[in-house]
Amino acid sequence: MNKHLIRVIVICIVAVTALVLVSCKDTRSLSFDNDTYIIYLDTAPSLKPGVSVKPAKNDYTLSVRNDTIAKVESDGQTLKGLSEGITVLTAVSGEKQATATLIVYAVTPSDPTPSDPEHDGKFVVEFITEVGAIPNQYIEPNGYATRPEDPSRPGYRIYAWYTDAELKNAFDFSTPINGDLRLYAGWGEAEAEFEYGNIEIDGTTYYGITGLKTPHVRYNELSIPQTDPEGTEIRAIGPRAFADMPALETVTISSNLRYIDQYAFVNCTKLTTVTFPHSSIGSGVTTIGEGAFGNCQSLTSINLPSSLRTVGSEAFAKCYALKSIALPSSLKTIPSQAFAYSGLESVDLTHVTSIGMRAFWGALDLATITAPTALARLESEAFRFTAWLNKAAPSGGNVAYLGTTLVYCYPASHIDVIVRSDTTLIANQAFYGNTAKTPTWEQIKSDKYTEPTLERTLQYGFIRLPATPVPRGDYAFQTEKDAIKPDLVVAETAIAAYAESSYYGKSATPEIMDRVYYSRTLNNLSVLLRATTPPAEGFANRYNVIIERYRGSAETLDVKSMLETDFGLGKYYTVTRIHQGAFTSLPSLKQITLPHRIGLIDSFAFNALTALEKIFIRWETLENDDWSVKSGQLADNCFSISGANAASWKIFVPTARLNSYRNFWTRVPGTITRFQPYD
Fold it and tell me: Where does the source fall among the domains of life (predicted)?
């Protein structure tokens, strides 16, 4: 054989052998033979736990997390118990590690074992404490264990039993037993021990409680002390100090406390009662922070102190069980979402001066509200989705009032909104959503927030305001997506005041002035005139006119002539709209003459005219007049003519523009056949 080849083979064999020898030194697996080991100090104070290690010749070391409960003897593999308790046992070999639970008892239990004939077919429930022994319970399949009495341990109590030594999974004694079970005692101080420190609130530092020393303990009740163990007064509860306590049911507040910071008790879902002491001027809680009692779903009773000045947003949001609450007269502001989705059925807001956005949003059962006497600000949607709002509008009306505050305008098609003369405030965005999808009361009551499409409300409507400007929130008259703004109708003497008050949330501009009108009636014809100075020749400053209603009994009516002569508008004007019902139920009316500059003829503007034969559109060409037929629009059913002439009435237009009218006025029933030319 080639000497070179032999040399290569020998080198490979040596390398493989060395690799095997090295790999044999690494531990491939390591585990304890049992999950739990028990030492009884009175009978067997030492034990050697079983440890499996591969390769078997590899060594391992033991350690105990709490060396006051047990220690490792000099051989490195034997444990000696020192005092009662539970700790973690760790074995290490190379890079491998394994853990087990070590329990040390003072005495060996003398109760019978499950192998005794008396307990055949039953499951054993074992109770692990750190002091003394609790007898095992033997339970028939699907039976229930009984919570045992706490063993004696001065200053301590068992708050809950757990299925794991780490005290993470609490056991419910209403759970059927279907296997052997070991339960671990969750000890805690007989009264909660607190952690203390400085808490900064709004730039000021206060001394108070920052949390619990034993947060795992399932406390049922907390009593906030006056001082810490050294005698320092406690002024505040810190942020999230007691958040997410699943068993907490009652809280008692001390008289020294001034501040409850944000989210202090959030998500305490079983909390039912919070008790504040009687407070006088200069004492008691003044501030409850943002979300402090948020999602306390079982809260039914809380007596807010007379010292309270401020509550934060969402302070009582999602308190579903909170049916009533007495707001102290010192509390002037209800912030955003403070009681959103709460269970409130009634609330007295007599002393409140400001209510934030969505303050009571989704409080479905809130049906009774005592109105504030001096409300100065009401933010948007404060009472949306409440029983009160859905019943607040008077019969036949479409606005909801809280005292003298206009809260909301209900969506309804083509309806003018009349703001009461005694109105003292208009809520922010009171008219917002009137062109949007809006839920009905039935859908809200069934807790389904689906939103069917309703016809747009103020697309052709007016808001009629009192003669004196009324305070209102920003963008009070804003509509959904600000797509369509209603027109404001005010007293002629109040035009300048409303415009200067920025009623659209903006500074007064020509655009805003275009939407402010005043009313005037002559010869049975009511019109709205835009707030502007009389126009000069030409259309730069022309009048804008809305025809509201004719209440006369004439057979022939020349509206064009009435506007130019009776109302003194001359020739330079535009009829921006003929309002719904402007000419309705006029049994004698046979002929109407209209100007050609008409922006919109509203639905049912001409309605129930049983004698109508002709409508004349009188065209007149003026300097700088860029009006064309396509500038006008017709709403559905704008000509709803009935009676004997329903099929024969005609619209007469200038011959030169006949085709234009036929092309652009497409919604008139029988469009083409209605139009007739004249010269």
Answer: Bacteria
How crowded is residue 360: how many other Cβ atoms within 10 Å of its Cβ?
Answer: 27
Contact 251, 275 (CB under 8 A): yes
C-alpha distances out from residue 550 to 417, 526, 546, 554, 613, Å: 20, 6, 12, 10, 18
Identify the pLDDT of residue 243. Answer: 96
| pLDDT tens-digit readout, 196-237 | 999 998 888 999 999 998 777 778 899 999 999 999 999 999
**What is the per-residue pLDDT for 314?**
97
- Beta carbons within 8 Å of 30's beta carbon, 6+ residues apart: 51, 52, 53, 54, 60, 91, 92, 93, 96, 97, 98
Alpha-carbon gap, residue 543 to 536, rounded angstroms = 10
On whether the CB atoms of residues 167 and 216 are closer than 8 A, the answer is yes
Both tokens of 313, joined, read 């947003």
In Å, what is the CA distance from 109 to each residue of 102, 113, 128, 259, 671?
17, 10, 11, 51, 102
Length of the chain (residues): 679
User: Phi then psi for 470, rounded to 5 degrees?
Assistant: -105, 130
Q: Are 327 and 352 in contact (CB under 8 A)?
A: yes
Asked if pLDDT for residue 287 goes beyond 70, the answer is yes
Residue type, 660: S
* Spatial contact of 451 and 438, defined as CB atoms under 8 Å apart: yes
- Give kind and range of the element (H or E) at residue 88: strand 85-93
φ/ψ (deg, to 5) at 563: -65, -40
The band of 446, judged by pLDDT with boundaries at 50, 70 and 90, is: very low
Looking at residue 18, its pLDDT comes to 47
Instruction: Give the H or E element holding residue 442.
Output: helix 441-445
What are the residues whose beta carbons fall under 8 Å from the beta carbon of 320, sequence distance 6 or more? 297, 341, 342, 343
| Window from 293-302, 357-366, 629-638 with minimum mean pLDDT | 629-638
Residue 489 burial (C-beta neighbours within 10 Å; 0-12, 13-18, 19+): buried
The strand pairing partners of 185, in sequence order, are: 161
d(Cα 120, Cα 213) in Å, to the nearest integer?
44
Q: How many CB atoms lie within 10 A of CB 673?
A: 12
Are the CB atoms for 292 and 314 separated by under 8 Å?
no
Please state, as a whole number, how many other Cβ atoms lie within 10 Å of the Cβ of residue 643. Answer: 12
Q: What is the mean pLDDT of residues 524-532?
A: 85
539-580: pLDDT as tens digits: 655 788 999 999 999 999 999 999 999 998 888 888 988 988
Q: What is the pLDDT of residues 152-162, one digit of tens each?
A: 776 578 888 99
Alpha-carbon distance 571 to 625, whole Å?
11
